[in-house]
Amino acid sequence: MALRRAAQRLQGVAASLTRREMGLDATRIAVASSLRGVPHRESPAPRAHQRRGMSHRPEDTVYGGPRPSEPRMTLKRLRAKYDAGERISVVTAYDYPSAVHVDMAGIDVALVGDSAAMVVHGHDTTLPITLDEMLSHCKAVSRGATRPLLVGDLPFGSYEQSSAQAIDAATRMLKEGGMDAVKLEGGSPSRVQTAKALVDSGIAVMGHVGLTPQSISVLGGFRPQGRSFETAAQVVERAMELERAGCFAIVIECVPRTVAAAVTAAVSVPTIGIGAGDATSGQVLVYHDLLGFMQHPHHAKVTPKFCKQYANVGEVITGALERFKTEVEGGEFPGMSYSPYRVSDEDSNRLVRLLEQKGLDAAAEAVLDLRYREDGGK
């Protein structure tokens, strides 16, 4: 205790001397400035330390470059939001434009889902999409979204054989795709083992229980899960196993609200519901579904009942394309308003003479006719 008190006194003396020396330095500067007839200016106060949001992008890290306008969502910030009882928003993104919109909306997590197989590639299930195709989507999204946490789905066939295969695929997701984390489906013992191997390798993992679309060949289709005592208990137990494996969050898909509430209360990590009611820590929807992006018979069959449509973008797009077609066929577009490039009169005359010399009278006449109309018929 005596040594500690002595050390504290020494620190106090040192601080006092430092302040005194700083005061003397300021006095010297003021005196020197007055002798030279230069008014003394106070030194600017030191700037407060600015926190940077960590990212896989060099320009967003401590090594230099511009600071993001808003801090990037990280696992730590996501956990803080969960601990504060705030709801977490998740939306899928598949390309640069969708990533930009998700980013601008302030969504917490952008999920590059294997649902791209259905809403982008036009397949009936998520099974056909490959790891290389998913990486292409991930790269585009990582260029467009600078603020959300980026999570990439490990596609079917990229992680089932062994933990080593899963680690290789997930590593590519992070290194090549620019993702912050990966998501895998299912909570069977083999999936839990894979999740733990990924976490032990330093890769953040989001789990997924309930309806797991990659298992539809076993489930018999896109069917809700957890509607019996046995299956409900299994959903809860598998979610707990995934938490024990180190998953930072768990998606709960297509289960009754009561089952989702049980899972959310049983685990201490965020739960993200989709078709699972309102008792989860957050919600996720597919970009195309919530925007009403595609309105055609095939898509209408697979649009889930639980999805609220926040816009009718599909009708807007179709209407715009129809107007374009009508204006093209009617000669209204592009017109003078959207024909911005011009040739000087001198060069235009030289072109007409050249065309006439080459015997291209029709071409020369076309140039003269267009100039006549551009000049208002003069």
From TrEMBL:
The keyword Transferase is assigned to this record: yes
Pathway where it operates: Cofactor biosynthesis; (R)-pantothenate biosynthesis; (R)-pantoate from 3-methyl-2-oxobutanoate: step 1/2
Region (Disordered): 36-69
Pfam families reported in the protein's UniProt record: Pantoate_transf (PF02548)
Positions of transmembrane segments: none
Top-level taxon in the UniProt lineage: Eukaryota
Stored SUPFAM superfamilies: Phosphoenolpyruvate/pyruvate domain
GO CC terms: mitochondrion
CDD domains named in the record: KPHMT-like (cd06557)
Catalytic activity: (6R)-5,10-methylene-5,6,7,8-tetrahydrofolate + 3-methyl-2-oxobutanoate + H2O = 2-dehydropantoate + (6S)-5,6,7,8-tetrahydrofolate
GO molecular function: 3-methyl-2-oxobutanoate hydroxymethyltransferase activity; magnesium ion binding
Role according to the record: Catalyzes the reversible reaction in which hydroxymethyl group from 5,10-methylenetetrahydrofolate is transferred onto alpha-ketoisovalerate to form ketopantoate.
NCBIfam families assigned to the protein according to its UniProt record, in alphabetical order: panB (TIGR00222), PRK00311.1 (NF001452)
UniProt-listed PANTHER family: 3-METHYL-2-OXOBUTANOATE HYDROXYMETHYLTRANSFERASE
Family listed: Belongs to the PanB family.
The protein's name: 3-methyl-2-oxobutanoate hydroxymethyltransferase
Gene source species: Micromonas commoda (strain RCC299 / NOUM17 / CCMP2709)
